[in-house]
Structures are given as structure tokens and as C-alpha cells.
Amino acid sequence: MSFSEAEKRTRGQRGPARKTLVKAQYETTAAAADYAAAFEDWGPTARYHRSRRHIVGEVLKDCPGGTLLDVGCGPGMQVRNLLDERPGDFRITACDQSPAMVEAAAERVGATAGVRLSVADIEHMPFGDGSFDVVLAMGVLEYVDAGSALREIARVLRPGGLAVATMLNPLSPYRLFEWGVFWPARRAAGFAERLCGVPPDRRHAARRTGIHAVRPARLRRMLWQSGLWPEDVAFYDVTALVPPFDRVARRWARGWRDAPETTVSRGARRWLGTAYLMTARHSAAGA
């Protein structure tokens, strides 16, 4: 099995060290609040999440409802969107490995009936076999053992149920430049600034994330191996800009707020998507 150079650069640390690195990023209340705030501003992160929100809504529009699990729910942004846009359609369960994120989600959801929240690891979920009609895994597979996570998703999904998963696109110009040039340049600048005595709060930096992103063909094979049969793939947050130029451009190029559909592609522009979404159905025979 071969990986592209982009994938090799994003595989990060493995095992316990990688899990510790991932958990540390969102273990505090402040980190959870900062993450949620990034959804609402005008920068690249907000554009990414607005684009993802649009494509998730699109793939769920023909789903009549039922039991839904949002695994890796973060501060509950997707749960809140579903409650607002599809009131009463889904009986929602949401979980995240970070207690701070679950606490933030609880505050965002409030006392809404029919929503269950819990602290849980996607690789070892405390839910029964075939418990859900729909499972969402948004922005979580990059940070875990994706094969183990997909097998757990298949286990808790009922036969014929829908799995919706996203993955950062390691072959997009944006990710290639961000991971191969932009982040290393910031780390190198920070190292030089440290040697020159620049105060820590004024140095450049790029934190280690533990991200391991895979290509669509690889994710499709992993879904098959888990007993989940791929149906559709769409690329989102389509952009030809790379960091830091995208940060400058977002100050005036704000059409994505009113027309998020322009940031999604299944056609020729798809490789400009910084991430992609794949849907799959559970097959008891395949499992």
C-alpha cells in the first residue's frame, strides 16, 4: 500500500503519543470556546465550516429523520444546526472525547428534548449495535485510527443506515502548501525568533496536530473494509488560494456567506476543495 508524499507528511505521531497530542488541543474550556468562535468570523476557518455545513445539509435533505449520532461533535455546532433547520426530524445523540467540548455543546443545545450528550471515544463508543439510522463523523477521522473508527461506526449503524464522513483533502493545493510550506515556515521563523530573544507571545508558531489525512480512494477502501458501501463524494471549501493569501482575501471576498453552494464541487473544480465528504450505506452482508 503506497501513500502520497502529502499523506506521509500528515501521518504525524502514532499510538499513545498521538492520542495525547490530539486530546491536549481541546481539553480546556477556553480551547472549546475559541474553536466555536472560529465558526462565526470571516476567516478561512469560518468559510471551511460554512461550506461543510452546506454540504452536510445537502446530503441529509432526502433523509426523513430517525436516530442520529454526531460523533466528534465538538462544541455542538452541527447539533444546533440540525435542531434549527430540521426541528423534530432527528433524535440526536452527540459525543466527543473532550469533556470541555461536550460541556460547550450542552450549553449550546440547552434543554432541548431528545438530545443526548456524552463523553466518548469514537474508537470505543458506548452504544449498542445497530442503534442509529444516521452517523455523522465531521472532522474527526483525521485525528484517530480511521480504520478502527469506521468499524465502530459500522457497528452502531443499523443495516441500510447512512454514514456521513469528512476528511481533509491531502492532495488539494491548499493542504499541500499549508502542510509542506506554510506550517514549516512558521515553525522555522519561531525557532529563529527564540534564538534572537523574541518574547514567546510574539513568536510565530504552528502547533503539532496529529492530523493524518488520506486520499478519497483510500477512504473508500477503508469504508468497504468496514462493511460500509460508498455512495457519493463531494469536495468542499473549494479555493485556489493558499495561506497566508487566503487570510488577506477573506477580508473582502465574502460571497461564500450568502452562496455556500459555490464552495462545493463534484466536478472539475473538486481538487481545489480543502476537504471532502463521503457518504456510505451500512450493508449487513458486506460487514
From TrEMBL:
Keyword annotations of the record: Methyltransferase, Transferase
Compositional bias (Basic and acidic residues): 1-10
CDD domains: AdoMet_MTases
Any one Gene Ontology molecular-function term assigned to this protein's record: methyltransferase activity
GO biological process terms, semicolon-separated: methylation
EC number: 2.1.1.-
UniProt-listed Gene3D superfamilies: Vaccinia Virus protein VP39 (3.40.50.150)
Methyltransferase type domain boundaries: 69-164
Keyword Transferase: yes
Catalytic EC class: transferase
Keyword Isomerase among UniProt keywords: no
Annotated region (Disordered), positions in chain: 1-20
Pfam assignment, any one: Methyltransf_11
PANTHER family to which the protein is assigned, alphabetical: METHYLTRANSFERASE, N6-ADENOSINE-METHYLTRANSFERASE TMT1A
Full protein name: Class I SAM-dependent methyltransferase
